[in-house]
Amino acid sequence: MTTRTRWRLAVVLLPASLAVALVAASLVGAREPGKARADPAPIPAPSLFRNIPQRGAVLGNPAAPVTLVEYADLQCPYCATWAAGALPVLVDEYVRSGKLRIVFRGMAFLGVESDTALRTAVAAGRQNMLWNVVHALYERQGAENSGWVTESLLAEVAPGVDVNERYEDWVSQEVQRSAAAARAARVSGTPAFQVGRTGGRLRLVEVQSLEAAALRPAIDAALAG
Hints:
By secondary structure, the protein is an alpha+beta fold. The chain is 40% helix and 13% strand. It has a single domain, classed as 3-Layer(aba) Sandwich (Glutaredoxin), CATH 3.40.30. It has a 6-stranded mixed sheet with strand order 1-2-4-3-5-6, sandwiched between helices. Helix 4 (112-124) runs antiparallel to helix 5 and helix 4 (112-124) packs across helix 7. It is globular.
């Protein structure tokens, strides 16, 4: 089984009748229970985002001409791989120059720990720290549903987020909006990406790898358009 095939097994948001089977499939070939992610790559320090504006789930200049939407589950090992390798490249090449803004759309299909982690990141968005929390969690990512998303870990990566705030209505609404956006975009796996002119129609991009080069053509085409 190829890396790409295993990665596409992380399927999300299809009809409820398939949910149990798909969640089970997503665990096959990803990691053995109780084991950390194979060959973990260190996530860049928060300096990656230094001097880059954040507002809620948006990283970068709100007026950037092109938008990239990332759909991801915080327990997905392939999402962590993309964040470690491709994201810093795109930030340096497009975000810092004001050409691109990136929107995080969190999924929680792998289990309760995905939901808890996502809610913490969304709550941190009110302090414009969502991206910092997301990448701190990827850096510490453990095996799916192994108990790695602890209260002590969440307090470490999101010190300003009150435990109860995760379950406020506005957080639930944001989580539901992301799920609805994924359904509308016909997202079938994580990580998944949409690209387009800001304020215009976004196109789901079928990427062949988890490298920045896989998204450059779509971003450059949107910039040229």
